[in-house]
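A quick word before the example. In earlier lectures we treated sequence and structure as two separate objects. From today on, think of them as two lines of the same record. Here is LYR motif-containing protein 2 written that way.
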Amino acid sequence: MRVSRLLSLSGLRVNIPLSTVARGTRVLGSDEMSRADAESTMVRYLDLQSFIVRARVLKLYRQALRTARRAPTHARDELRQTMRQEIEKNRYCDDKQKIRFLISEGLQRLKGLDEMLDMMGHS
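And the structure line, produced from the sequence above:
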């Protein structure tokens, strides 16, 4: 029987064999875990499509943050905050079609911002 430990990576829980976990990590026995702890450590698996869509969202967010660096100094913080709010607003959306629409809309808005910054001479 393989012993596994649940680790959280960016809100995504994955099973990692205990042998790959650093020494000194304490594994709680079932008698030490409360029911709430047990429910919070439920494993969430993503199918391939969901994984790819998640990667596209993160790529869009990274591109947006890079573009925000080109904005005038006085507008950068507000721009980053707005970008984060837009992503967080739809964080728990499960509708794949809506997510694809939001990604394409985000790419269009990012392209428009990029073009505007180019016209303003911010490179």
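Notice the following. Residues 4-40 form one domain. We will return to this example when we discuss secondary structure assignment.
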